[in-house]
Amino acid sequence: MLAGSAAPTEAMPRMKVTFKLYATLSGYLPGGARDHQIEAEVAAGTTPNEVIDSHGVPRRLAHLVVLNGVYVPPSERDRAILRDGDTLAVWPPVAGG
Amino acid sequence: MGWTRNVMRVNLTAGTIKREPLNMDWASQYLGQRGLASKYLVEEIDPKVDPLSPENKLIFTTGPLTGTMASTGGRYSVVTKGPLTGAIACSNSGGFMGAELKNAGWDMIICEGKSPKPVYLYVENDHAELMDASGIWGKSIWDADHILHARHQDPLIRIAAVGRAAEQGCLFSAIVNDLHRAAGRSGVGTVMASKNVKALVVRGTKGVGNIKDPKAFMQAVNAGKKVLADNAVTGQGLPKYGTQVLMNVINEIGAMPTRNMREVQFEGASKISGEAMHEVRASDGRANLVTNAACFGCTIACGRISVIDKNHYTIVNKPQYWGASGGLEYEAAWALGSDTGVSDLEALTYANFLCNEDGLDPITLGSTIAAAMELYETGLITREHTGGLELKFGSAEALTKLTELTCRGEGFGRDIGLGSKRLCEKYGRPELSMSVKGLEFPAYDPRGIQGMGLAYATSNRGACHLRGYTVASEVLGIPVKTDPLVTDGKAELVKAFQDATSVVDSTGLCVFTTFAWTLNDIQPQIAAACEGDWSLEKLLEMGERIWNMERMFNNAAGFTAKDDTLPGRLLSEAAQTGPAKGKANDLHKMLPEYYRVRGWTPEGEPLQATRTRLGL
After folding, report:
1. Which domains occur in chain A, in start order?
2. Which of A20, A21, A22, A59 has the highest number of chain B CBs within 10 A, making it the mutation to test binding with B?
3. Does B68 lie in the same domain as B191?
4. Do both B160 and B114 map to the same domain?
5. Do A36 and B476 count as a contact with CB atoms less than 8 A apart?
6. What distance in Å separates residue A23's CA from the closest CA in chain B?
7. How deeply is A17 buried, as exposed, middle or buried, from its count of CB atoms within 10 A (0-12, 13-18, 19+)?
């Protein structure tokens, strides 16, 4: 399914990324999302924080931000550039054991 | 003071019970629970003793904060030499037994020898008695609990018991208290059954006093509780999702051990996750998770209480499993699920119920079944061995049937009860056992989390996450984020986690507090409760002392640096997917540095200077 749209820039080409929200953040996904994820269409050049912002997720709750399985530190979340087919997963502060 | 200063010594061979004073010299160096009971064990048994012989001892032990107002202050531990590993064993449990034991006036119960017939130990404050267990021997823990409550006509007694698996010699039997909290790892339940002890039954009404400075203690306790409540992990995340919130996290970063650790990501992870436990089932309109639950004095409440779909094949004709009971923790869900390839949440919950009912360590159970499934794939285990059961990865029926058989010690369940090391040796492929020092891995693949490889290899009780949980730093960013795919700095990180955890395990508090607390939050509580100098520096030195003491016991028991390793699969077979794709665990880059920062020889022996500095 297609849902969500981050940083729409008319002149920029669009691409698809998988956006996952888990635990207490799941409620920020649009209705109809399955398995805690959506396929989001975003503009080329989009950053993790732009995707997070566009879904209304408060940045203070976006604790664990993982791009293709690799942690993105807060200092990189406005600089890292998503590519077509990427997977961005976000958790609030969590722990277990 | 924190301590009651009373030790109960039970000679099972002679049937005698004596009170003796707690050794306060040792308490000043080892505090309580894990540290202090391990000191008693090390002083009292031959390290080479057969763990299942009468010469081994079994110690139930509380910490100075057990039973107090401190948050999570309800923990107790069982310390012995473990039959699964041959190493020192210390298994920690929550629930209400620890606080009850302290309320009865005891810091510790030391069981020695072997009873000539099945007994249970009944403790009511100062009164202690060995009672005939013939009516409960051969019963499950749940049935024994019911019978004992009826017999003593006291709904407030607390019971810790072993199940049929332990009686049948299953080497990874747990001691289960309060029906579904467990001293789970290393086979401490097997030792208890080997001594012909079925249960510990305790009623304590004396209260827990002896706090050195009550006002300062309550101030420190309240400050600590506020930190836990204000922290997003301990105040919100753990109560709602429990430890199971990690299922999707660890899978996403490519560190989810799957199908006997051949793979590092499981396609069915989301179906067995903490989030999935909240989802309403189409079949019966209910969610797997009924509520969360707390142990004694806990203000986190991470426990899971679950109900299985009555229509599920596992319980459709078994009303005894229709009620709510202890649900899946992450470790159980991973081992029973991802490692066997099973993504049926209800089947996993049923297997978990059985582990509670008859006292099995679900980590070792799941890992051993996974090893059996790989042996079945290779043809070394056949349907002739299994009684016709097809042991295919992904088969929920195989998982639940084998769990039933292992609980009762029947059929192929007796082979599963050996644990993976002995099972794989028996069937000619020892390298397929995913274990260290005989203990199976928990839920973090060390190819994707490098520091955990070092933590597993050097853990004093084998492959265990609760001896040095660098996942907190490498994955979750607690207290600071480190890169899980690099080895630099991991020797120091592992040592720091190992020493700090040794301290927490000696207090009576739960290690989960450390997702919000540091030792700076714990130290004021200890200092206000206990006589003596309990500065932060002294606590950290004590943690290091405990670690080295355990290490020296293991070395004397016959372990060497050669045992500080990982299965070949994790050292040479690279991960196929995820961020760790192409990587194995680089233990060889970390281990020499670890020995150096520990103050050990290149052969893994504590240097004389290290022993002298720590008073060992």
Report:
1. 2-91 (3.10.20.30)
2. A22
3. yes
4. yes
5. no
6. 6
7. buried
State if pTM tops 0.95: yes
Chain A residue closest in CA terms to B472: A95
Strand order of the sheet with strand A87-91?
Answer: A2-6, A37-43, A14-21, A87-91, A64-67, A70-71
The stretch B438-459 carries a mean pLDDT of 98
Q: Is residue B453 located within the same domain as residue B394? A: no
Which residues touch B515 (CB under 8 Å, ≥6 apart)?
Answer: A95, B231, B233, B234, B238, B472, B476, B478
Q: Point out the domain boundary residue: B392, B411, B439.
A: B439
Residue B320 predicted with pLDDT over 90: yes
pLDDT at A3 over 50: no
* Nearest-CA distance A22 → chain B (Å): 8
C-alpha distance from A56 to closest chain B C-alpha (Å):
19
User: For the segment B382-393, what is each residue's pLDDT rounded down to a tens digit?
Assistant: 999 999 999 999
Mean pLDDT over residues A32-54, rounded? Answer: 95
Give the one of B241, B244, B270 whose C-beta lies nearest to A35's C-beta.
B270
Please report which helix (H) or strand (E) contains residue B181, including its range: strand B181-183
Q: Which of A61, A69, A91 sits opposite B254 (nearest CB)?
A: A69
> Amino acid identity of B327?
G
Same domain, yes or no: B116 and B260: no
B63 and B199 within one domain: yes
**In terms of residue numbers, what domain contains B370?**
244-439
Listed residue (B362, B353, B359, B363) closest to B308, CA to CA: B353
Nearest chain A residue (CA) to B510: A97
Q: Does the CA dihedral B345-B351-B352-B353 come out positive or negative? A: positive
Q: Is B68 on the interface with A (CB under 8 A)?
A: no
Residue B185 · residue B364 · CB < 8 Å: yes
Q: Is B123 in the same domain as B39?
A: yes
> Is B236 in CB contact (< 8 Å) with chain A?
yes
Considering the domain architecture, whether residues B155 and B271 belong to the same structural domain is answered as no
- Residue numbers in B near A66 (CB within 8 A): 249, 252-253
> What does the pLDDT average to over B487-514?
98
Domain of residue B570, CATH code: 1.10.599.10
Q: pLDDT tens digits for B56-67?
A: 999 999 999 999
Cβ-based contacts of B469 with chain A (< 8 Å)? 97
Residue B209 banded pLDDT, cuts 50, 70, 90: confident
* Neighbour-count burial for B231-266, b at 16+ CB within 10 Å, e otherwise: bbbbbbbbbbbbbbbbbbbbbbbbbbbbbbbbbbbb
**Residue among A26, A92, A96 minimizing CB distance to B232:** A92
Quick one: closest CA in A to B252, which residue?
A69
**Chain B contact present for A64, CB below 8 A:** yes
